[in-house]
Amino acid sequence: MLGRNGLGGLKGKMEMNLYITQRFSMQLFALAFCIVVFSGFSKPASAAVQEIIAVVNEDAISARDFNKRMKLIIISSGLPNNKDIRQRVSPQVLGSLIDEKIMVQEAHGMNMKVTRAEIDAGFAKIAAQNNMAADKFKAQLKRGGIDITTMYDQIEAQVAWSKVVQARLRPKVIISDRDVDAELERIKAKIGTKEYLAAEILLPVNDDKDEKRVKQFAASLVKEVKSGKASFFKLAQQFSKSAGANNGGDKGWLNEAQISTEILKALRSIKKNQVSSPVKTLNGYHILFLRNTRMVSEETMPSRDQIYYNIGAQRIEKLQRRYLQDLKAAAFIDVRA
To answer: Distance between CA atoms of 104 and 87, rounded to whole angstroms?
Structure first.
Protein backbone atom coordinates (compact mmCIF):
# COMPACT_ATOMS: atom_id res chain seq x y z
CA MET A 1 0.00 0.00 0.00
CA LEU A 2 1.05 3.57 -0.52
CA GLY A 3 2.60 4.60 2.78
CA ARG A 4 1.93 7.89 4.46
CA ASN A 5 2.73 8.14 8.16
CA GLY A 6 0.70 10.72 10.05
CA LEU A 7 -0.44 12.52 6.91
CA GLY A 8 -4.03 11.41 6.57
CA GLY A 9 -3.35 8.11 4.81
CA LEU A 10 -6.81 7.58 3.37
CA LYS A 11 -6.97 11.06 1.89
CA GLY A 12 -3.48 10.63 0.45
CA LYS A 13 -4.39 7.34 -1.20
CA MET A 14 -7.51 8.88 -2.68
CA GLU A 15 -5.48 11.80 -4.04
CA MET A 16 -2.91 9.46 -5.59
CA ASN A 17 -5.66 7.32 -7.12
CA LEU A 18 -7.04 10.50 -8.67
CA TYR A 19 -3.59 11.43 -10.00
CA ILE A 20 -3.12 8.06 -11.68
CA THR A 21 -6.59 8.21 -13.19
CA GLN A 22 -6.02 11.72 -14.54
CA ARG A 23 -2.45 11.14 -15.71
CA PHE A 24 -2.81 7.79 -17.43
CA SER A 25 -6.38 6.76 -18.16
CA MET A 26 -7.44 10.31 -18.97
CA GLN A 27 -4.41 11.55 -20.89
CA LEU A 28 -6.41 11.75 -24.09
CA PHE A 29 -9.32 13.54 -22.45
CA ALA A 30 -7.65 16.95 -22.30
CA LEU A 31 -7.62 17.28 -26.08
CA ALA A 32 -9.50 20.17 -27.60
CA PHE A 33 -10.51 19.45 -31.17
CA CYS A 34 -10.97 21.76 -34.07
CA ILE A 35 -12.74 19.46 -36.49
CA VAL A 36 -12.49 20.35 -40.14
CA VAL A 37 -12.21 18.30 -43.29
CA PHE A 38 -8.67 17.91 -44.65
CA SER A 39 -8.36 17.06 -48.28
CA GLY A 40 -4.70 16.09 -47.84
CA PHE A 41 -5.57 12.74 -46.30
CA SER A 42 -6.10 10.33 -49.16
CA LYS A 43 -7.96 7.08 -48.65
CA PRO A 44 -5.61 4.10 -48.99
CA ALA A 45 -6.23 1.65 -51.77
CA SER A 46 -7.96 -1.55 -50.69
CA ALA A 47 -4.71 -3.49 -51.09
CA ALA A 48 -2.95 -1.11 -48.76
CA VAL A 49 -5.64 -1.13 -46.09
CA GLN A 50 -4.40 -4.43 -44.64
CA GLU A 51 -0.70 -3.75 -45.27
CA ILE A 52 1.21 -4.53 -42.07
CA ILE A 53 3.66 -1.78 -41.17
CA ALA A 54 4.70 -3.05 -37.72
CA VAL A 55 4.39 -6.13 -35.54
CA VAL A 56 4.42 -5.84 -31.74
CA ASN A 57 4.70 -9.29 -30.17
CA GLU A 58 1.54 -11.07 -31.34
CA ASP A 59 -0.24 -7.93 -32.60
CA ALA A 60 0.03 -6.14 -35.93
CA ILE A 61 -0.33 -2.47 -36.84
CA SER A 62 -1.77 -1.91 -40.30
CA ALA A 63 -1.39 0.97 -42.70
CA ARG A 64 -5.05 1.69 -42.09
CA ASP A 65 -4.45 1.94 -38.32
CA PHE A 66 -1.59 4.34 -38.99
CA ASN A 67 -3.54 6.55 -41.42
CA LYS A 68 -6.52 6.85 -39.09
CA ARG A 69 -4.30 7.86 -36.19
CA MET A 70 -2.30 10.28 -38.31
CA LYS A 71 -5.47 12.12 -39.23
CA LEU A 72 -6.60 12.30 -35.61
CA ILE A 73 -3.20 13.59 -34.46
CA ILE A 74 -2.94 16.26 -37.15
CA ILE A 75 -6.42 17.59 -36.48
CA SER A 76 -6.30 17.46 -32.67
CA SER A 77 -2.83 19.04 -32.43
CA GLY A 78 -3.68 21.87 -34.82
CA LEU A 79 -0.66 21.20 -37.03
CA PRO A 80 -0.90 22.16 -40.71
CA ASN A 81 -1.86 19.28 -42.97
CA ASN A 82 0.97 19.12 -45.46
CA LYS A 83 3.45 16.50 -46.65
CA ASP A 84 6.39 17.85 -44.67
CA ILE A 85 4.49 17.85 -41.37
CA ARG A 86 3.10 14.36 -41.97
CA GLN A 87 6.60 13.04 -42.64
CA ARG A 88 7.93 14.60 -39.45
CA VAL A 89 5.00 13.39 -37.35
CA SER A 90 5.02 9.85 -38.75
CA PRO A 91 7.64 8.38 -36.35
CA GLN A 92 5.77 9.85 -33.37
CA VAL A 93 2.46 8.42 -34.57
CA LEU A 94 3.90 4.96 -35.12
CA GLY A 95 5.70 5.12 -31.78
CA SER A 96 2.44 5.92 -30.00
CA LEU A 97 0.67 3.00 -31.69
CA ILE A 98 3.47 0.66 -30.63
CA ASP A 99 3.33 1.94 -27.04
CA GLU A 100 -0.42 1.41 -26.94
CA LYS A 101 -0.10 -2.18 -28.15
CA ILE A 102 2.39 -2.88 -25.35
CA MET A 103 0.18 -1.19 -22.75
CA VAL A 104 -2.86 -3.24 -23.70
CA GLN A 105 -0.83 -6.45 -23.92
CA GLU A 106 0.55 -5.92 -20.42
CA ALA A 107 -2.95 -5.31 -19.06
CA HIS A 108 -4.25 -8.46 -20.76
CA GLY A 109 -1.33 -10.42 -19.34
CA MET A 110 -2.47 -9.33 -15.88
CA ASN A 111 -6.06 -10.35 -16.71
CA MET A 112 -7.19 -6.73 -16.74
CA LYS A 113 -9.94 -5.78 -19.14
CA VAL A 114 -11.26 -2.43 -20.30
CA THR A 115 -15.01 -2.42 -20.62
CA ARG A 116 -17.03 -0.63 -23.26
CA ALA A 117 -18.58 1.40 -20.46
CA GLU A 118 -15.12 2.70 -19.50
CA ILE A 119 -14.36 3.61 -23.10
CA ASP A 120 -17.72 5.36 -23.45
CA ALA A 121 -17.06 7.25 -20.22
CA GLY A 122 -13.71 8.40 -21.59
CA PHE A 123 -15.30 9.54 -24.81
CA ALA A 124 -17.98 11.40 -22.87
CA LYS A 125 -15.27 13.28 -20.95
CA ILE A 126 -13.69 14.41 -24.20
CA ALA A 127 -17.07 15.57 -25.44
CA ALA A 128 -17.73 17.45 -22.20
CA GLN A 129 -14.41 19.28 -22.51
CA ASN A 130 -15.60 20.41 -25.91
CA ASN A 131 -18.93 21.52 -24.39
CA MET A 132 -20.91 18.88 -26.26
CA ALA A 133 -22.99 15.84 -25.52
CA ALA A 134 -21.29 12.60 -26.56
CA ASP A 135 -23.66 11.92 -29.48
CA LYS A 136 -23.23 15.41 -30.91
CA PHE A 137 -19.46 15.23 -30.53
CA LYS A 138 -19.39 11.89 -32.29
CA ALA A 139 -21.44 13.32 -35.16
CA GLN A 140 -19.05 16.27 -35.48
CA LEU A 141 -16.05 13.97 -35.57
CA LYS A 142 -17.63 11.93 -38.33
CA ARG A 143 -18.35 15.09 -40.33
CA GLY A 144 -14.65 15.94 -39.99
CA GLY A 145 -13.75 12.55 -41.45
CA ILE A 146 -12.44 11.09 -38.16
CA ASP A 147 -12.79 7.33 -37.69
CA ILE A 148 -14.11 7.01 -34.13
CA THR A 149 -12.44 3.63 -33.63
CA THR A 150 -8.94 5.13 -33.51
CA MET A 151 -10.04 7.36 -30.62
CA TYR A 152 -11.62 4.39 -28.88
CA ASP A 153 -8.36 2.46 -29.28
CA GLN A 154 -6.40 5.32 -27.73
CA ILE A 155 -8.80 5.58 -24.80
CA GLU A 156 -8.68 1.82 -24.25
CA ALA A 157 -4.88 1.82 -24.12
CA GLN A 158 -4.71 4.67 -21.63
CA VAL A 159 -7.35 3.15 -19.34
CA ALA A 160 -5.62 -0.24 -19.54
CA TRP A 161 -2.28 1.32 -18.66
CA SER A 162 -3.79 3.17 -15.69
CA LYS A 163 -4.92 -0.18 -14.31
CA VAL A 164 -1.44 -1.64 -14.75
CA VAL A 165 0.11 1.34 -12.96
CA GLN A 166 -2.40 1.10 -10.12
CA ALA A 167 -1.81 -2.59 -9.57
CA ARG A 168 1.91 -2.99 -10.27
CA LEU A 169 3.59 0.34 -9.54
CA ARG A 170 1.51 2.29 -7.06
CA PRO A 171 2.19 -0.17 -4.18
CA LYS A 172 5.91 0.51 -4.63
CA VAL A 173 5.55 4.21 -3.81
CA ILE A 174 6.14 4.76 -0.10
CA ILE A 175 6.06 8.35 1.19
CA SER A 176 7.00 9.00 4.80
CA ASP A 177 6.73 12.01 7.10
CA ARG A 178 10.49 12.32 6.76
CA ASP A 179 10.17 12.65 2.96
CA VAL A 180 7.64 15.45 3.33
CA ASP A 181 9.62 17.20 6.07
CA ALA A 182 12.79 17.11 3.96
CA GLU A 183 10.99 18.56 0.96
CA LEU A 184 9.40 21.25 3.11
CA GLU A 185 12.77 22.29 4.51
CA ARG A 186 14.27 22.29 1.03
CA ILE A 187 11.54 24.64 -0.18
CA LYS A 188 11.89 26.93 2.88
CA ALA A 189 15.59 27.30 2.10
CA LYS A 190 14.63 28.74 -1.28
CA ILE A 191 12.66 31.71 0.06
CA GLY A 192 13.85 34.75 -1.87
CA THR A 193 14.78 32.81 -5.00
CA LYS A 194 13.00 32.93 -8.36
CA GLU A 195 10.46 30.48 -9.71
CA TYR A 196 9.16 29.93 -13.23
CA LEU A 197 5.62 28.82 -14.06
CA ALA A 198 6.28 26.77 -17.15
CA ALA A 199 4.92 24.15 -19.51
CA GLU A 200 7.01 21.78 -21.59
CA ILE A 201 6.97 19.34 -24.44
CA LEU A 202 9.39 16.49 -23.74
CA LEU A 203 10.50 14.36 -26.69
CA PRO A 204 12.66 11.50 -25.38
CA VAL A 205 15.64 10.15 -27.29
CA ASN A 206 15.59 6.41 -26.67
CA ASP A 207 18.35 5.57 -29.12
CA ASP A 208 21.36 7.53 -30.40
CA LYS A 209 20.28 6.91 -33.98
CA ASP A 210 17.01 8.73 -33.27
CA GLU A 211 18.59 11.92 -31.93
CA LYS A 212 18.78 13.76 -35.25
CA ARG A 213 15.17 12.92 -36.10
CA VAL A 214 13.88 13.96 -32.66
CA LYS A 215 15.87 17.20 -32.79
CA GLN A 216 14.44 18.06 -36.21
CA PHE A 217 10.93 17.21 -35.06
CA ALA A 218 11.33 19.43 -31.98
CA ALA A 219 12.53 22.29 -34.20
CA SER A 220 9.52 21.87 -36.49
CA LEU A 221 7.11 22.05 -33.51
CA VAL A 222 8.77 25.26 -32.30
CA LYS A 223 8.45 26.72 -35.78
CA GLU A 224 4.73 25.92 -35.95
CA VAL A 225 4.07 27.42 -32.50
CA LYS A 226 6.04 30.60 -33.18
CA SER A 227 4.27 31.09 -36.51
CA GLY A 228 0.90 30.82 -34.77
CA LYS A 229 -0.13 27.79 -36.85
CA ALA A 230 -0.30 25.41 -33.90
CA SER A 231 -1.08 25.59 -30.18
CA PHE A 232 1.73 24.74 -27.77
CA PHE A 233 -0.75 23.17 -25.36
CA LYS A 234 -2.39 20.95 -27.97
CA LEU A 235 1.02 19.80 -29.20
CA ALA A 236 2.00 18.94 -25.62
CA GLN A 237 -1.16 16.88 -25.17
CA GLN A 238 -0.39 14.82 -28.25
CA PHE A 239 3.39 14.53 -28.30
CA SER A 240 4.93 15.23 -24.88
CA LYS A 241 6.07 12.31 -22.73
CA SER A 242 6.40 14.46 -19.63
CA ALA A 243 4.17 14.48 -16.57
CA GLY A 244 1.52 17.09 -17.15
CA ALA A 245 1.19 16.32 -20.84
CA ASN A 246 -2.56 15.84 -20.43
CA ASN A 247 -2.73 19.36 -19.00
CA GLY A 248 -0.99 20.96 -21.94
CA GLY A 249 2.50 20.22 -20.63
CA ASP A 250 1.99 22.10 -17.35
CA LYS A 251 5.00 21.72 -15.02
CA GLY A 252 3.79 24.02 -12.26
CA TRP A 253 6.25 26.32 -10.49
CA LEU A 254 9.91 25.41 -11.05
CA ASN A 255 12.51 26.84 -8.72
CA GLU A 256 15.74 28.06 -10.28
CA ALA A 257 17.73 26.01 -7.74
CA GLN A 258 16.10 22.69 -8.65
CA ILE A 259 16.24 22.68 -12.44
CA SER A 260 19.13 21.84 -14.72
CA THR A 261 21.48 24.48 -16.08
CA GLU A 262 20.19 23.88 -19.62
CA ILE A 263 16.53 24.34 -18.66
CA LEU A 264 17.25 27.39 -16.51
CA LYS A 265 19.22 29.04 -19.31
CA ALA A 266 16.32 28.47 -21.71
CA LEU A 267 13.74 29.88 -19.29
CA ARG A 268 15.89 32.97 -18.68
CA SER A 269 16.16 33.51 -22.43
CA ILE A 270 12.41 33.90 -23.03
CA LYS A 271 9.71 36.26 -21.82
CA LYS A 272 6.22 35.56 -20.56
CA ASN A 273 4.07 33.70 -23.12
CA GLN A 274 7.07 32.87 -25.29
CA VAL A 275 8.36 29.46 -26.38
CA SER A 276 12.00 28.37 -26.25
CA SER A 277 14.15 26.68 -28.84
CA PRO A 278 14.63 22.93 -28.28
CA VAL A 279 16.79 22.19 -25.22
CA LYS A 280 18.83 18.97 -25.03
CA THR A 281 19.16 17.16 -21.68
CA LEU A 282 19.77 13.56 -20.67
CA ASN A 283 16.01 12.96 -20.95
CA GLY A 284 15.73 14.15 -24.55
CA TYR A 285 14.66 17.42 -26.15
CA HIS A 286 12.52 19.92 -24.21
CA ILE A 287 10.45 22.77 -25.60
CA LEU A 288 9.51 25.27 -22.89
CA PHE A 289 6.67 27.76 -22.61
CA LEU A 290 6.98 30.45 -19.93
CA ARG A 291 3.68 31.41 -18.32
CA ASN A 292 4.89 33.56 -15.41
CA THR A 293 7.61 34.17 -12.82
CA ARG A 294 7.62 34.96 -9.09
CA MET A 295 9.83 35.12 -6.01
CA VAL A 296 9.47 32.37 -3.40
CA SER A 297 7.92 33.63 -0.16
CA GLU A 298 6.08 32.30 2.90
CA GLU A 299 2.82 32.94 1.04
CA THR A 300 3.79 30.69 -1.88
CA MET A 301 4.77 27.72 0.30
CA PRO A 302 2.81 24.55 -0.55
CA SER A 303 0.87 22.63 2.09
CA ARG A 304 2.01 19.26 3.41
CA ASP A 305 -0.76 17.58 1.42
CA GLN A 306 0.45 19.28 -1.75
CA ILE A 307 4.01 18.17 -1.08
CA TYR A 308 2.88 14.60 -0.45
CA TYR A 309 0.90 14.58 -3.68
CA ASN A 310 3.78 16.06 -5.69
CA ILE A 311 6.30 13.53 -4.37
CA GLY A 312 3.96 10.64 -5.18
CA ALA A 313 3.19 11.96 -8.65
CA GLN A 314 6.88 12.38 -9.48
CA ARG A 315 7.77 8.90 -8.29
CA ILE A 316 4.91 7.20 -10.11
CA GLU A 317 5.75 9.12 -13.28
CA LYS A 318 9.36 7.89 -13.19
CA LEU A 319 8.33 4.32 -12.41
CA GLN A 320 5.77 4.07 -15.20
CA ARG A 321 8.11 5.57 -17.78
CA ARG A 322 10.89 3.15 -16.85
CA TYR A 323 8.46 0.22 -16.77
CA LEU A 324 7.17 0.98 -20.26
CA GLN A 325 10.74 1.27 -21.56
CA ASP A 326 11.57 -2.13 -20.04
CA LEU A 327 8.50 -3.71 -21.64
CA LYS A 328 9.48 -2.28 -25.02
CA ALA A 329 13.05 -3.52 -24.65
CA ALA A 330 11.78 -7.03 -23.95
CA ALA A 331 9.15 -7.01 -26.71
CA PHE A 332 9.44 -8.28 -30.26
CA ILE A 333 8.96 -5.16 -32.41
CA ASP A 334 9.32 -5.42 -36.18
CA VAL A 335 8.83 -2.10 -37.98
CA ARG A 336 8.31 -2.71 -41.70
CA ALA A 337 7.33 0.78 -42.88
So the answer is: 27
